[in-house]
Amino acid sequence: MVQLVRNSEGILEAELEGKKYSHVKLIRKFPFTMPDQYISVRTQEDEEVTLITNISVLEEASRREAEQELQAYDMITQILNVISIKRSEDLWLWTVDTDYGRMVVRMNERFENLHPLSPSRWILTDIEGRRFTLSNN
Prior knowledge:
By secondary structure, the chain is mainly beta. The chain folds into 2 domains: 3-70, no CATH class; 76-135, no CATH class. Helix content is 11%, strand content 53%. The chain has a 6-stranded mixed β-sheet, covered by helices on one side. It starts with a strand and ends with a strand. 15% of the residues are buried.
């Protein structure tokens, strides 16, 4: 059975059959009417590690991490202010103030996952699949 933990940097990791996977993401599969069932555990390269048929079968700590990660994935955070955009090795790091406090948003490309919703509003998706809105108002 897969075990989910966060490392010291808060990055979700998975362990399955003695193999560790860093920077994993959890993606709900269809049907969305069963939100605790059919959860895909995916690598940073978007390869499926395993499919969780129901999060209730996970150990308590892993279930809490899964619930937290899925809740964060479904939430759309509002970016209030962009503090900086910097290149760090192979990632772009956006330091932003949001309606949930200061965060670092990690992206592979600086603007690739920034899509217009209107002439003054955009949606940004980070490498973990989290979504943020950005407005110039």
